[in-house]
Design goal:
Elements: E1 25-27, E2 34-37, E3 46-53, E4 60-65, E5 69-72, E6 80-88, E7 105-106, E8 123-125, E9 132-135, E10 144-151, E11 158-163, E12 167-170, E13 178-186, E14 203-204, E15 221-223, E16 230-233, E17 242-249, E18 256-261, E19 265-268, E20 276-284, E21 301-302, E22 320-322, E23 329-332, E24 341-348, E25 355-360, E26 364-367, E27 376-383, E28 422-424, E29 431-434, E30 443-450, E31 457-462, E32 466-469, E33 478-485, E34 515-519, E35 526-530, E36 540-545, E37 550-554, E38 564-568, E39 573-580, E40 586-594
Antiparallel strand pairs: 1-2, 2-5, 3-4, 3-6, 6-7, 8-9, 9-12, 10-11, 10-13, 13-14, 15-16, 16-19, 17-18, 17-20, 20-21, 22-23, 23-26, 24-25, 24-27, 28-29, 29-32, 30-31, 30-33, 34-35, 35-38, 36-37, 36-39, 39-40
Keywords: Repeat, Signal
Organism: Neotamlana laminarinivorans
Protein name: Fibronectin type III domain-containing protein
Amino acid sequence: MYVDHADEAIVTPITCSLTAPSGLTVNNVLKTEATLSWNFNTTVDHYNVRYREVGSSVWVTESSITAGSVTLTGLNEDTNYEWQIRAKCADDTGSDYSDAQGPDFKTTSAETICNASAPTELTVTNVSVTEATLSWNLDNTVDYYNVRYREVGSSTWVIESSITSGNITLTGLNEDTNYEWQITAKCADDTGSDYSDAQGPDFKTTSAETNCNASAPTELTVTNVSKTEATLSWSFDTTVDHYNVRYKEVGSSTWITKSSIRVESVILTDLNEATDYEWQIRAKCADETGSNYLDGSGPNFKTTSDLSSEACSDTPTGLYVSNLTSDSVTLNWDYNSSVDHYNVRYKKTGDSDWRYVESINAGSVTLTDVNTSSTYEWQIRAKCEDGSGSDYNDGQGPDFLPPSSDEISVTPSCSDTPTGLYVSNLTSDSVTLNWDYYSSVDHYNVRYKKTGDSDWRYVESINTGSVTLTDVNTSSTYEWQIRAKCEDGSGSDYNDGQGPDFLPTSSNKSIQSSIIAYTSSSKTNLIVKIDDTTNTPEQSIKIFSIYGRLVYEKSNIESSNGEVLYDINIEDGIYIIMLFNKNGEIIESKKVMKN
């Protein structure tokens, strides 16, 4: 008998990936529970997780996990835990536990006081025709959250109650409709914040007629660069079916391709250390129409090496404070990718007890438990993976005083020229450009060029207070400009936002900060010290207010015992200190607060 198999599908077997899991995080930590998460790989058959109390020799294992997270229960309160994860194929081959060590965590105590202040970091993501995900900064001391939302213009709120996580997905929304939302945090006794204290950003659902918009991706960035890995990211468009990324060593003719990516980033592995790479991205619809690789060239990057000038145990540099309000402040420092994590401690001036924030994997942390009753001091240390690192006492940040509510300045409009422009993290092939970030601005655009060139290079749609350039070199000084843009397209002009010129350093120069600044014990003067003062008579120093006004200048600075010291009487505020060489080129800049 003849059987026609023409309509039968040909199934291509999926190859199981043996790569160690990445993106390891811990959240929703309670007295006896914690949720462990990782980047889920659909080619993996299952995951195994093991955990134990720090110092114990006995592991507890959770096996055959087929999701990107697992919630541990039955933990001991007020206890430190460590954990590891491995990925397994159906034949039980795969990665080892030792390949993927998650961040340590500590369960809460039964005596933890509920801190149900207004939630922060309110965002909206994954907006579709009938759904949207609302997110906020989860506080483990809060008992639960309530969210209410409505169509803009409506008087009727819809309420989602007793939420115990840091997000919620709204369903059953009307298409092509504007919505607003608010959130409250509550303790077990129902005390806490009010809805009016936390208004989230409005959002608009999409239309059922939305077509695939596979234009060239924007906001192309490179982060988490190590000796053999790098993370490439872009602005994710939900109408796009998938993205393709290709990359190669600079100068090579052979591209390596990552296909069918349906998220906003991809991690490149097995890179060569101390090597320059370039990459391109394209967006594709289901019918394979879309943008071209040449339309989406990301910034070049260079992998690190064991000879990197920055060690994980170096004292953090570039310490300053920002976003100072009556009950919150952001502490900032220069992020070093070779550091495993940072620990910060802070206290009221004169107190003996420190408060701690640990296992920080970024260049800043926001404190929300400060008040106007006292000035505060803070210290930071960097920690290596093996537990070694710098000392708190070597990383003293500038003191700060939360202002009373009537002292807080009005947030600038979205069209105001950006302020607080300075550069940091200056190396032979990269630099970070910084400015004061304001949430009223829809996005920032930056342009830069070699001094004397006529053609600008552009980085657009930036939603933070800094951007890192990785395509500069030591052959020339550079100039840069910035503008702020509103949602309707209006905004400031590039020419009004001129940042300080910079000159990338040669690779054999140390990038350790030489500027140290702090408020005098009398609280009246700003003390500025400059170390590493080679050729100081040819250098000069300038201090600018946060609004760009020159408040102090000194040429041909002189040293005593290898150190330059200034005792400057200026008003309280935020200042930019700049050190220049004999050619007027910026050597280093630092943002400080005098209070």
